[in-house]
Design goal:
By secondary structure, this protein is of the alpha/beta class. The N and C termini lie far apart (46 Å). Helices cover 40% and strands 12% of the residues. It folds into 2 domains: 257 residues, TIM Barrel (Alpha-Beta Barrel), CATH 3.20.20.100; 85 residues, no CATH class. α2 crosses α3 and α11 packs antiparallel against α12.
Length: 359
Amino acid sequence: MEMSKIIIGAMRFKDRESAVSTIREAIDSGFNYIDTSPCYCYKNADENSESWVGEAVNYRDYRDRVMISAKCSPGNGGMLLGEFKPEQGFGVRTIEQLKQVFNQSLSRQKLESFDYYHLWTTHTAEQLNEALKPGGWYDGVMSLKGKWKHLGITTHADTPTILEFLKRGKFDTVTIPLNVVNRTREGILDYCKKTGIRVIAMNPLAGGFLAGNERLKELAFRYLFSLPEVHILVGFTSVEEVRYARRILDKLEGNVPVKEEVLAEADAMLDTKEPRCTSCGYCAPCPQGLNLGACLSYYNIYKYMKMAEAREAFQEKQWEEGLRLDRCVRCGICQSRCPNSLPLMEIIPAAQEMLYRDR
């Protein structure tokens, strides 16, 4: 089964009823991959995203029309290694722990096997090395070969780190944050195309805040449609959102947008002549581990488009080390690398003051 351009994220549902109706509507719309995890929408062992996915797909022929994924992590959901929390899928660091969480996901979804299984929330070399150590996560997954078809990794790391992950040769799918205002990880696309690694773009609407502007929301879809090798993981919450995505798909199929035109329109919406970061990513890597382009994408939308949602989303994501702009030591390396010669030693303090105000 070939993966559809738009695929189904199952992390934002409010209850079982809306989850089941939304998932079935998405499958009926031709979206044929579901991404979930043990902790998404977790209320208890019976009420969680995985069990809701199970109810949605184990009905009529829905399972035959969709690919199902599951995942777990040796990490804590952030940048550290975690304590073992099987109900949420964190801290999975031994073969037996992996088997326990893997089988828990199968049971919740009432499945016999998965199409995809992911090494989840792996953002640092330490987390990856922990997963690949003898007797760890990877050995556990390999001991269950036959119960999954494809192996992937989900990460918020920067481009150089992601490329190092992929060069280990363990994964045939990678899920990364990628959207029209945060393009800093575009640098992995050529490598993935050459090696046949499938790319899934999470956070296509930047955690939802791009949906606050109707034109920017459509441009977000247009941008990812302009990247033929990328699949768009949408965290649907309702049938109406599925129908919107289907309309966009119908509109763009056979009329693939030109990336440069999409980006030019998105940039023009910021309506500024001030020197501004374009999230090209050429300043990476940062000695402090910051993803400066991602940080400044929030700043630009908040400052120039007056969208309060951008600052709120930035503050909510401070668990992600790459967005800890308050840790910048102003070493000047980013400014020396910037292809647009931006005065980053002036822009960064302004962004810090604006994004962290009233926090």
